[in-house]
Amino acid sequence: MKQARIKSKHTQQQIADQCGISKSLLSKIENGQTSSAVATLSKISESLDVPLTWVLDGHPETDLVILPTVDRQINADDNDMGYSFELLANRSRFSRIEPTIVHVTPMDYNKRHEPYTHSQDEFIYMVEGAMELFYDGEKHYMKKGDTSYFKGVKPHLFIPVDNDGAKVLTVFVDD
Question: What does the record list as coiled-coil region(s) (predicted)?
Answer without folding.
Answer: none
